[in-house]
Amino acid sequence: xxxxxxIFRADGSPSIGMGHFTRTLALAExxxxxxxxxxxxxKATEYQISEIEKICHGRIDLPxxxxxxEDFLTQLKGDEIVVLDNYYYTTEYQxxxxxxxxxxxxxxxxxxxxxxxxxVINHAPLRSNLFSRAVYTKxxxxxxxxxxxxxxxxxxxxxxxxxxxxxxILCIGGADFNxxxxxxxxxxxxxxxxxxxxxxxxxxYQHFQSLTQKINDYSExxxxxxxxxxxxxxxxxxxxxxxxxxxxxxTILFEAISQKIPILTGYYVDNQKDxxxxxxxxxxxxxxxxxxxxxxxRKDHIKYLENSIEQPYSPSINRNTKDRFLTSFISxxxxxxxxxxxxxxxxxxxxxxxxxxxxxxxxxxxxxxxEYHNHVKWFxxxxxxxxxxxxxxxxxxxxxxxxxxxxxxxxxxxDYSVDENFRGEGYGTIILKLGLEQLLKDCKNNLHFVIKAxxxxxxxxxxxxxxxxxxxxxxxxxxxxxxFVEYEKKII
Length: 492
Known about the structure:
Strand content: 25-35%
CATH class of the largest domain: Alpha Beta
Distance between the termini: 41 Å
CATH architecture of the largest domain: 3-Layer(aba) Sandwich
Helix content: 25-40%
Radius of gyration: 26 Å
CATH superfamily of the largest domain: Glycogen Phosphorylase B
């Protein structure tokens, strides 16, 4: 039974394409067995409504004009996870959603704004330092987080590709507002070795009638098949019987990669450039042509793919993507149950118990046990110190753990621990993430600083937690005859 509501907010139309809608719905499909999924959109067509109803538990219809921004905010109760996918969601709009009490996920492909979301998803294989984001924002980036429908994650046998590529599948996506389908068809017609062309267009394609006429004119010279609104399985079937694919660097590219088919690709809008730039330097089975608006498909492009047929196919789509997303969203949902508060005088006994826990002492810089009277003196000074921030985390009024930030002249140093009754359940990541978020709120007048941590090298679980939140490993130091990994994160 779904336990927490996720509201997916995305639009699709002939003017903006169907990519945002399709990939957001694909994410909903991965999560709908475990969450109550609602899809919020504008100007939904019958096709979109039908697709939403197959996957989601409900739909929110928003106004077509700019009133949709405020209207969406009024729909939020504050206990939902919100997923946004479009370019017009500013940093301020993200803050408005977070202010409601919601957890926020943004699907990104431009890394052009500052993110205050809890999670940012971008399935392009990018470097994390390209993203401007809050200290607590987690990045899910790269092919491991491809936003595809379930059928495309099925394991595929190695494809037998003929040495001469004669049959191609051409798909520019759901809208193709520049009508590149027609342009590329003109280019393929004059390539003699191409014998069969399969064209797939989407629901929002506005040039279907003229394309049909062109296909009729060309049909004497080539076998041309035209399909509209293929479902996932039918699209896969067409890819299986094609020798190579011509697709842009959008979601359809990831779908083609999942089928291990040789690919000619390129970009036609700016948000596809990151993927194009990565692919052109890494893989032999994929040829990046550049800007598809001005680049023509030529015979030598096909020859390039033919020369790479004998090589192992790469890249690959990870079959565990659904599990990765599910783990991340369950962790996000669990944050609703964790309350963060400042430590007070009454916590002195709890902190003493935590500090003298055997595992905590073994991983500390100073490993000797702490005397109670020294602890009391230390604790009272810390909670009164304006340069120390001590936070306690509770679940159903039971202490789960703590985090402390101590400010020096140029940075904050982190100390955190999880109560032994809650270890191994992912609370370390939640404590670090929520602690960073709370520190940012409490230091709102001083947002330019560095946060550091020192983790014993054999404390692998804690190392993974800092790496999940994209702390930079700056090296290993020796302290009290033990080795520690130093992690650092700059807050700008």
